[in-house]
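Justification of computing resources. Each target in the renewal requires a structure prediction run like the one illustrated here; the chain below, 634 residues long, is used simply to show the kind of job we budget for.
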Amino acid sequence: MPRKGMRSLCFSPKHSSSSTFFPPSHSPSPSRFGFSPARPSFYDSVMDRTLELAEPVIMKWNPETTALARVTSLFYENRREAKEFIKTVNNLQKAMHYLVTENSSSEKLIRAQNLMQIAMKRLQKEFYQILSMNRAHLDPESVSTRSSRTSVASSYSSYDDEDDDAEAADESIAEVEDASMAAMADLRLIAECMISSGYAKECLKIYKIIRKSIVDEGIYKLGMEKLSSSQIHKMDWEVLDLKIKSWLSAIRTAVQTLFHGERILSDQVFAAADSIRESCFIEIAKEGAMLLFQFPENVAKHSKKSPEKVFRALDMYTGIANHWPEIDSIFSSESAASIKSQALTSLVKLGEFTRAAMGEFEAAIQKNSSKSPVAGAGTHFLTIEAMDYLSNLADYSNVLADILADSPPSAKKKLPETYFGFSDSEESPAPAISLKMAWLILVLLCKLDTKAKYYKDVSSAYLFLANNLQYVVVKVQTSNLKYLLGEEWLTKHEGIVKQFASNYERLGWGQVIDALPADPAAAVAPARAAEIYRNFNSAFDQAHRKQAHCVVDDHKLRDHIKVSIARKIMRLYREFYNANHEKMAGERNLAVAVRYAPKDVRHRLSELFFGHVESGASSSSESPSSDYRRPRSR
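Resulting structure tokens:
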């Protein structure tokens, strides 16, 4: 007997088939008769009967003997006959198994093995045809949407039942299964037959070649390509950004459809062989999965860690983190450990990239050396860009919390205790992400404090601080920073804004208020009243002229400052005007001192803080740019 033929005899059958031969327990007992054991002749007769039944069924579909068998698909032409073919092969394999244990030198084994080889060639051909002809029905998207890993077409797992049961199963399957499920059931039939007959290697070879080509093609169509470290390092950011966008779309499709569908298909086709199922799936999916999960690591390791790139790193981190339950489920076996390890490595490297980029952002704030005061004491571009950056970072608070939790809490040691707007104690430590955001905003405010010193007029310096801190507060209120920093932080800094505004009013408009008497309704001589008017006119004109260029960008802060200034000036001036303007009208040489009626003062105050020039920092190569902003397309 050929050595290859012996392998089919080393597999124990799953089921006995009483329709073809009796199991050993039903054979006649030789001890009851006074002659030599007859069991070998019994098994010889069983094999004779099996060969008699099997030969016409198998030879009919021998592709080397008939033209019809060469060009026709057994499973496509007649599913009932296909099931009968499988049943015949299974019975032949069982008969060979029993005979080899009793008479391994029987010539009938050679004849049976020749038939088995013909049958296996037929099944290899059928297996290949089903996989090839049903690429559309077995594409991962179809499989993943129509099946689940736990749903197995068990109706086809055994064909040792009575014909009536098989027909009933056929009818049931025809009602509920579509083309993809039918193809999977056929593949499972063939796979189980070939594996139990010792032809697992041939079966798996066909399956892996065809299915791996489909997975690899799917990865290619998703835009994934193998890039070396040097290629990524030399790549322009605009080009790399496009590849990252492609990856963000690819990971969703690859995990939810491509690998998920392939996992389902492998589970169903090789449901009866756990080790084969796992190894087969991993060999098919590993190359594509490693290519997919290595890309983020390569980007994180070999691209410049500049602040504007952090959002793409966070997008990729989110992509892996959001799909981690599916990744963990699909690649759950020990043989898939390297794939999950690669995905985790990418998460680690992306986390390191993010922390480094945030460090670069902090350094950029500290190194900003622009000394040109913002026109009108308005909002500095450093403030706008930095807060836009931080508010965008806060949109990733879930993944940032994980990333920053792994970093040493160095920021906590630098922050003054009074700066915290949240509980931070050894018993209840503040989240690392809250500490980091609070620290970065403090770094920004300290830098703004140094820039305020470039204003020659102190009142303008306070207005600059009020404008910029108000922008910070509003940005926190209207973004996820609010939840990271807390209401206490907001309340405290809103109070600081009002304090800056109050200092601006005192220094910018104090002389105007001081020009009016503390008791404006008290009677004074016309000459004294004229002197007060002249002092007021001079102080008001000077203050108005100096403050006319100032801007307050936030309308709430602008209204607050206007109302506060008007309340302090208008009350005193109106009372003084009402008490003295009539007596001044009778003195021609003194009436000229009354330059403003109360409504004129109010009108001139209402014109303030819109500015005559646009707010913003003077251009500087060291000023943050819009590059810090999150990419619009994610």
